[in-house]
Design goal:
Chain B: It is a peripheral membrane protein. The structure holds two protein chains of two kinds. By secondary structure, chain A is of the alpha+beta class. Chain A is built from 40 helices and 13 strands. Chain B is 14% helix and 39% strand. Chain B contains seven helices and 27 strands. In chain B, the strands form seven sheets. In chain B, strands 8, 9, 13, 15, 19, 20, 21, 24, 25 and 27 form a ten-stranded mixed beta sheet that branches. In chain B, strands 2-1-5-4-3 form a five-stranded antiparallel beta sheet, sandwiched between helices. The chains are: A alpha+beta, B mainly beta.
Chain lengths: 998, 436
């Protein structure tokens, strides 16, 4: 019975469906049928109307593909308007009806030879849009003709058509030689054609990252810059974007490009303006900061950026997102323009929020009063989101500008007085941050905050308030009552609040143990027994055990001093910022994400980097040594020669010590991050545009106090010269007029010798966390020293190079009046103080002397490089001897390179400057080796594992500022280490001994 | 580059859809509409759709329509927005007005336009001058003649004689209709300034900016050369010394690329060959140092009466020269209602917590006042702080904040047949805020 019923039901449904669909088809058929008749009408007007109707239905999404043959029949007409409509239809349906589309080909080919250039261009354009494979072979001939057409309108259409064809069939485009024709079009007389050719080539080049299609050299750049002045505004954008990919050879070229791009800043089209800003921001990196032009350029950038803010709100939004980046990179551009970022009453909310962000970025001591007054006004506006952000902004101002903190706090208190719920909550959240930044300064406001305890209903505000109560429990009389009131609804709170409450009560207990025992019991049992949140439970257990085993330790852990917070937390990470600056005006700059984060596939994902700044403010250089002669001569003096150092470094103790301290946490974290970076990043960077290697910065370490030189840099600034200059300048500092001249031939110092010592790994004395110090050797035998025997060694302890000597009197008489002097040497080593031998040395007595050294002494190249000639005087005579110091003691503590800098430098160093070694019989894991090396100031920048081999990337810096980079390959279970050493300078060979270290 | 382009009505109807690169289907239109209407309030113009990972929507709103472009690569949203603005301008020029109806009626024309302005997603040209060589379709004007348009005449100055004033609708007709024999040769030059002013609660002028532009709308089928003379004492930049005269100064100005400036530096004359349609010939900006005092001042007092009501007494003064008269002046205050003189009206909008005070006409040199009494539950002294700023929106015809004037407007050679030139000045409020 039931079955029958359901069947009946089904029948009825079926029936109704039938009638419905029948109704539909008849209408549809009717409409289509009608249109069909009209399309085949003899009257042109009627035909045109019919095609229009077809297109209207097409637009609203109706399927009119059934009319394909009839529409195609209308194609052959003299009426341009009708023809355009038919082409429009074809573009839309050709894909779904490829066979039929072929029917239209003949007409296309015919139209491509029409005397009317409009029709020729129309045909080429439309054919390119019909994305059907079969049509491409018919397209080639007409396209070839059109690329050479006499009419620029046809040529510019054909140029784009090449890009279209390339997308459908790249091979065909290459085979047919269209790419060359396209390149020729860059020199076309018509700027519009040039612009389209550039656009098409850029697009094709993106899908072939390694092709040199758009070969940017000074000649083509010049052509583009000329076309820039004549182009339409849109063409100017293509050209400027293309220019932004070029890396000028030197600062002079970059200045001349900047000069020619600057007039674009006053263009009415804001997209042109922003593209010009992008080019300028990028090329400005190459200009020396002390150049007059640099300042002029900075001044010129501000007005156009401000003008962008008077455009439509949509443009304002994009402009603000970009300005946000620019302000972070170069705050000086807009520092006087704070007022334009003040929020207008009728700005859309998305513009308001962005403006607020920039206001905070620009806030400084000079304008903080103005900014605060504005922010206070905003905090009383109607829009809740905006008000919240404004309140937060006040807090951020307090953290950023210390002088304003007091005023910010009082503003926040005023706002809390309004009792507007969300304002109060927001204010409490930021006050918590202010407490963290300025501890023990504004605690007087706590009472006011506590008054508002009941009105807090947002987890973040509750958590912030609880934190405050816990942190300052000793100053709040009724802290226990306050916290207890929160505890009542413990299970209904969000995790954030629960965690904070747990911690706060434990803090309270540690501060007032007597009164709060019960409370802490209660919260611990709530957290551990009644909660199923693992975070909460575990934190509860930790506290519990801490409190029950060692309350003193608990106090140290829970009430430990907290690191201060700073306003930089919300800044964009510098490397990302650099990349984003290269993408100004694009989607990346709006999302504040690198393009790789949101663009899929091969197209357009290229890492862009700002060019290195040549001769920027940080680099120091003296005018005298800047001359080419001084520069090329000086360097060898300071580069250690290979052979001798190799030996010393190999003596480094690589046997696993019993107590190796754990690596600093920062290092291990970095290694994890670096693995990834080196895995993909290094390779992708290799193919990228090259950039000048970073200039090593010398910092003031005790060994190398540096001599500041303020002078314009020479135009050509290469790392080679830099190394030389650094050597030279320290010589200058010591009062040597002429840089020591060393013949170029002597660069190739002996390489041999040290390799033997390489295997001498077990000899060293274990010094787990300090630099290696070789055992003492006899420098001056008693025979030569008239009874004085000197044995000694060198060590680096706590950043200071020390010469440790044992003086033994083997003569018969007492020795007094000891003094020491060094001859000029490769690294400018000199005694930092007098030799401290206070008591006279009686016969057969020995004395241990430690002499601190610095590296500011006169420089002269020695052979071997690490040779040191010493003169020791006593009451008997003056004695001369020479000794050799281990190069590792010259490795300074700040030899840790930035990962990015390392990558860039590593790839920049030519193969000639690399050397490879093998270290055998070294039974250390890569981690242990890295720890050990770090003790000698050789820092592991990154580590990755390839095919069971651990690759350690390491850097170290010599006291004279020369960097040495190394790659250490460790095969697990194989005691042989392979070392590739690279140095920025041609003398890397000499330095490669450092590699032997590993 | 642009992958697809579509125009939607505010209700989400598909009006125009064109695919340039075949990278995504037409289903994205609905994805976009859902995304943009999902939240209340204005959405930022650049939207990334997460489940179409590499598809980005860039949109603007003009004439109540969504103008949307999609793109897949990391292209410049700036040029896309700028382009969409131009496109809407072109559509307005060609169709006469921007509305759902106009777009629907002229879809064939718009498709033709889209074909020329973009090729494979690359912007080709947006100048109506060049475009008119390629466009075949005739615009269908959607606006029937209506008497209502003429009734608005007073908007541009009631003192002048009727025949000297162009009806406000005169400038909203399609440019191509000039092919019709009946079309008049007319040129409209508008000097439009937007004023943003912030006056502090103590009556001090905190910030005053003027953004202005000179717009030319040309209905001449073939206009040769036009010379626009500005005030001779017009100066650009901050550093220039100013004399005693009524110098007109702006901080910065930029010009349309077709403007020739060879006579600008010596005689302050802009020379251009206007193409058909509407263009901003010159844009300028002036901040802080306005030549005259701001046109309106407000003397507010906010207090609490004995019955616990909020009393707001507002006195508004217009400082313009007495002869001038202002036509529309609606105004909004932060929270709260009662008023003074005859033809005004006031309204409390609870939703925005705002009181609107509408003043249809306000003579220069006069003063108006209003008293609003509001019953606010739970009024405390703290909530007095919450009474937000007063925002004024107004339109001042025949007045420019900077004092910029058009000295003359010459066409050379003189166009045969009847041709008319119109010059209009108007200052709008952009954001005129008086804090309480």
């Amino acid at each position: 019975m039931q079955e029958w019923a359901s069947q009946l039901c089904e029948n009825r449904q079926f029936g109704s469906k039938m009638t419905d669909s029948k109704y539909f088809t008849t209408t549809k058929k009717g409409e289509i049928f009608e249109l069909k008749a009209e399309l085949n009408s003899d009257k042109k007007e009627k035909k045109k109307e019919a095609v229009k109707k077809v297109i209207a239905s097409m637009t609203v999404g109706k399927d009119v593909s059934a009319l394909f043959p009839d529409v195609v029949n209308c194609m052959q007409t003299d009426n341009l308007e009708l023809k355009k409509l038919v082409y429009l239809y074809l573009m839309n349906y050709a894909k779904s009806q490829p066979d039929m589309a072929i029917m239209a080909v003949n007409t296309f080919v015919k139209d491509c030879e029409d005397p009317n250039p409009l029709i020729r261009a129309l045909a080429v354009r439309t054919m390119g849009c019909i994305r059907v494979d079969k049509i491409t072979e018919y397209l080639c001939e007409p396209l070839r003709k059109c690329l050479k057409d006499e009419d620029p309108y046809v040529r510019k259409t054909a140029a784009v058509c090449v890009a279209k064809l390339h997308d459908i069939n790249a091979q065909l485009v290459e085979d047919q030689g269209f790419l060359d024709t396209l390149k020729d079009l860059i020199s076309d007389s018509n700027p519009m054609v040039v612009a389209n050719a550039v656009a098409a080539l850029s697009e094709i080049a993106e899908s072939h990252p390694n092709s040199n299609l758009l070969d940017l050299n000074p000649q083509t750049i010049n052509k583009l810059l000329t076309a820039l002045n004549e182009c339409t505004e849109w063409g100017q954008i293509f050209i400027l974007d293309c220019l932004a990919n070029y890396t000028p050879r030197d600062d002079r070229e970059s200045q001349s490009i900047c000069e020619r791009v600057t007039p674009r800043l006053s263009h009415a089209n804001s997209a042109v303006v922003l593209s010009a800003v992008k080019v300028l921001m990028k090329f400005m990196e190459m200009l020396p900061k002390d150049l007059d032009y640099y300042g002029t350029l900075l001044k010129k950038l501000a007005p156009p950026l401000v003008t962008l803010l008077s455009a439509e709100p949509e443009l304002q939004y994009v402009a603000l997102r970009n300005i946000n980046l620019i302000v972070q990179r170069r705050p000086e551009i807009l520092k006087h323009e704070m007022k334009v970022f003040f929020v207008k009453y009728n700005d859309p909310i998305y513009v308001k929020l962005e403006k607020l962000d920039i206001m905070i970025r620009l806030a400084s001591q000079a304008n903080i009063a103005q900014v605060l007054a504005e922010l206070k006004e905003y905090a009383t506006e109607v829009d809740v989101d905006f008000v919240r952000k404004a309140v937060r902004a006040i807090g951020r101002c307090a953290i950023k500008v210390e002088q304003s903190a007091e005023r910010c706090v009082s503003t926040l208190l005023d706002l809390i007085q309004t009792k507007v719920n969300y304002v109060v909550q927001e204010a409490i959240v930021v006050i918590k941050d202010i407490f963290r930044k300025y501890p023990n300064k504004y605690e007087s406001v706590i009472a006011t905050l506590c008054e508002n305890l009941d009105s807090l209903d947002e987890p973040e505000a509750r958590a912030a308030m609880i934190w405050i109560v816990g942190e300052y429990a000793e100053r709040i009389d009724n802290a226990d009552e306050l916290l207890e009131s929160f505890l009542e609804g413990f299970h209904d709170e969000s995790t954030q609040v629960q965690l904070q409450l747990l911690t706060a009560i434990v803090k309270l207990f540690l501060k007032k143990p007597t009164e709060t025992q019960e409370l802490v019991q209660q919260v611990l049992s709530l957290a551990t027994q009644d909660s199923d949140n693992p975070d909460l439970r575990d934190r509860g257990y930790i506290y519990w055990r801490l409190l029950s085993t060692d309350p003193v330790a608990a106090k140290e852990v829970v009430l430990a001093e907290k690191p201060l917070i700073s306003e930089e937390t919300d800044l964009i990470e510098p490397t990302l910022l650099e990349e984003l600056i290269c993408h100004i005006g694009t989607l990346a700059s709006v999302y504040h994400k690198p393009p790789s984060a949101f663009v899929e596939g091969s197209r357009g994902v290229q890492h862009k980097r700002l060019p290195g700044s040549a001769g920027s403010g940080e680099s120091v250089e003296s005018p005298d040594t800047g001359s080419a002669a001084g520069v090329s001569d000086a360097p060898p003096a300071v580069i250690p020669s290979q052979g001798d150092l190799l030996g010393d470094l190999l003596n480094l103790d690589l046997t696993p010590p019993a107590t190796t301290g754990p690596p600093p946490p920062a290092t291990s974290g970095m290694q994890l991050g670096a693995m990834d970076l080196l895995g993909g990043g290094l390779d992708s960077l290799m193919g990228d545009e090259s950039e000048p290697p970073p200039i090593p910065l010398r910092t003031d370490t005790p060994q190398s106090p540096q001599i500041p030189h303020q002078s314009p840099s020479p135009p050509d600034y290469s790392p080679t010269e830099l190394g030389g200059d650094l050597g030279g300048s320290s010589a200058m500092g010591a009062g040597f007029g002429a840089p020591p001249a060393a013949p170029a031939a002597s660069f190739s110092a002996p390489v041999s010798g040290g390799l033997d010592d390489l295997f001498d790994l077990g000899g060293g004395v274990g010094m787990p966390m300090g630099a290696y110090s070789p055992p003492k050797t006899v420098w001056l035998p008693a025979m030569k020293g008239k009874g004085l025997e000197i044995s000694g060694t060198f060590a680096r302890r706590a950043g200071v190079i020390q010469m440790e000597m044992t003086l033994t009197n083997k003569a018969m008489s007492v020795m007094t009046d000891f003094a020491i002097q060094f001859n000029r040497n490769s690294f400018g080593l000199a005694p930092a103080g007098p030799l401290q031998v206070l008591t006279p040395l009686s016969p057969n007595q020995s004395i241990e002397v430690t002499l601190p050294l610095n590296t500011v002494g006169p420089v002269m190249k020695m052979d071997p490089l690490n040779n040191l000639q010493v003169a020791v005087k006593n009451n008997i005579d003056v004695f001369y001897f020479s000794c050799q110091y281990p190069i590792s003691m010259l490795f300074v503590e700040d030899g840790k390179m930035e990962r990015q800098v390392f990558l860039a430098t590593w790839k920049d160093i030519s193969n000639d400057n690399e050397a490879q070694f093998q270290i055998k019989d070294c039974h250390l894991s890569s981690d242990a080796a890295s720890n050990k090396l770090q003790g000698s100031n050789i820092f592991t920048i990154a580590k990755r594992t390839v095919d069971g081999q651990d690759m350690l990337y390491q850097s170290t810096k010599l006291s004279n500022g020369i960097w040495v980079l190394a790659e250490l390959r460790v095969q697990t279970g194989n005691p042989t280490f392979t070392v590739s050493l690279a140095q920025q300078t041609v003398w890397s060979n000499h330095c490669s001994d450092c590699a032997a270290n590993y | 580059m642009i992958s697809q382009l579509f125009i939607l009505s505010s209700k989400g109807d598909h009006l125009i859809y064109k695919d340039y690169r075949g990278e995504a289907g037409s289903d994205v239109i609905d994805v976009f509409y859902e995304k943009v209407t999902a939240l209340t309030g204005d959405q930022p113009p650049v939207v990334m759709v997460t489940h179409h990972k590499d598809l980005h929507f860039v949109h603007i709103r003009q004439g109540g329509l969504y103008w949307v472009a999609t793109t897949t690569a990391d292209s410049s949203p700036f040029s896309i927005i700028e382009f969409l603005n131009r496109l809407s301008g072109l559509v307005k020029d060609y169709c006469g007005s921007l509305s759902e109806k106009a777009v629907q009626m002229n879809f064939a024309l718009i498709y033709e336009l889209l074909d020329e302005v973009l090729d494979y997603g690359y912007v080709q040209m947006t100048s109506s001058d060049v475009l008119k060589n390629f466009i075949q379709s005739e615009a269908v004007s959607s606006k029937p003649f209506s008497l209502f348009d003429l009734s608005n005449v007073g908007l541009f100055g009631a003192e002048t004689q009727q025949n000297k004033v162009a009806p406000s609708s005169a400038a909203t007709r399609p440019i191509q209709s000039s092919r019709d024999p009946g079309g008049k040769s007319e040129i409209f030059v508008d000097v439009i300034e937007k004023m943003s002013v912030v006056i502090g609660s103590n009556g001090v002028l905190m910030k005053a900016d003027i953004e202005g532009e000179v717009r030319v709308k040309c209905y001449m089928p073939s206009c040769s050369e036009m010379r626009i003379g500005l005030n001779e004492e017009f100066s650009v930049g901050k550093s220039q010394l100013r004399g005693y005269g009524a110098a007109v100064r702006v901080d910065e100005c930029s010009f349309h690329q077709s403007v020739q400036l060879d006579e600008f530096h010596s005689h302050r004359i802009l020379r251009l060959c206007p193409s058909q349609g509407e263009h901003a010939v010159m844009q300028y900006r002036l901040s802080d140092e306005l030549p005259s005092a701001p046109p309106f001042r407000l003397f507010p007092s906010v207090e609490r009466d004995s019955a616990g009501r909020l009393l707001m007494y507002l006195k508004l003064r217009c400082d313009l020269p007495p002869k001038r008269s202002v036509s529309l002046l609606p105004e909004g205050a932060g929270l709260s209602q009662e008023l003074s003189s005859p033809d005004q009206s006031a309204e409390l909008q609870l939703q925005n917590r705002t009181v609107f005070w509408k003043i249809p006409r306000f003579c220069g040199g006069t003063q108006l006042s209003a008293l609003f009494k509001l019953d606010v539950p739970g009024l405390s002294s703290a909530s007095m702080l919450e009474v937000g700023p007063v925002g004024l929106s107004f339109e001042l015809p025949k007045w420019t904040g900077t004092g910029l004037q058009i000295r003359f407007l010459r066409l050379s050679p003189i166009h045969p047949g009847p041709s008319q030139r119109w010059v209009r000045y108007v200052t709008h409020s952009d954001s005129y805020i008086i804090r309480i």
